[in-house]
């Protein structure tokens, strides 16, 4: 099992770079950031772009993997996103993972002036977006006509530093998204029950993940793929569980999900006076000692 972190893009780089460097020093496998234009309670506070932030982080670190959790079609197009990702993968020396999903109904959904898409339209769009992005990142030139997304002789030379392209971690819980994860993903991402923490008692949270993994397994079998070939990533912070309260709480939590088959845990870097407020000393102790206690 690996341990990674999410660093929100809320800091001016003079301060933010210290956090990304510290994440590497603490030994995290990866550091991700949210790919939003703004997000929930942070909407009227500082919030920077994910790709420029990750590019800066790539120059400030040497070993740490970097990525998004998660990118979506809400305000992106595969052609322009592919160009940015190829550049980021080059700058980082091949350390980028793209977390990607269908998106939701938050602020990003209407920031470009469009009406928020229905769940069906989000699924339809994602079903075009992901295969096109896959082709763009693999091929020197791409032409494809779609209902929502097209490319006409789009050039992406020299391609990704990672071959045949940088890995996709697909966030999905529904049947169409899980099928895409099985077909295109190198990993799968969940944050728990999509209904939210208020609707799922703490003691039932692992059962939710177990059922999702069962569905992922079935989706992989339908694609003729072994589910063991996908990383299974759990993003902490969207359930009522409190694994960052103490080292012991983390070890209990991590052990539960390790037994279910989760291969990577992602915990939020503490942010004072927010939903991600946690003791930084405890957090750093979890980072350096937590997984060792599972062995």
Description:
The protein is α/β, with parallel strands linked by helices and 295 residues long. Helix content is 38%, strand content 16%. It has eight helices and ten strands. Strands 1-2-3-4-7-8-9-10 form an eight-stranded parallel β-barrel, surrounded by five helices. A two-stranded antiparallel sheet has the order 5-6. α4 packs parallel to α5. The relative contact order is 0.13.
Please give a quick description of this structure.
The protein has 295 residues and is of the alpha/beta class.
State mean pLDDT (0 to 100 scale).
96
- What percentage of residues falls in helices of 4 or more residues? 25-40%
Global Rg: 18 Å
Structural class: alpha/beta
**How many β-strand stretches?**
10
List the helices and strands and how they pair.
Layout: E1 2-6, H1 13-25, E2 30-33, H2 50-60, E3 65-71, H3 78-92, E4 96-100, H4 119-138, E5 141-144, E6 151-155, E7 168-171, H5 175-184, E8 187-190, H6 205-222, E9 231-235, H7 247-260, E10 264-268, H8 280-289
Parallel strand pairs: 1-2, 1-10, 2-3, 3-4, 4-7, 7-8, 8-9, 9-10
Antiparallel strand pairs: 5-6
Question: Features of this protein?
Answer:
8-stranded parallel β-barrel, 295 residues, 8 helices, 16% strand, two-stranded antiparallel ribbon, alpha/beta
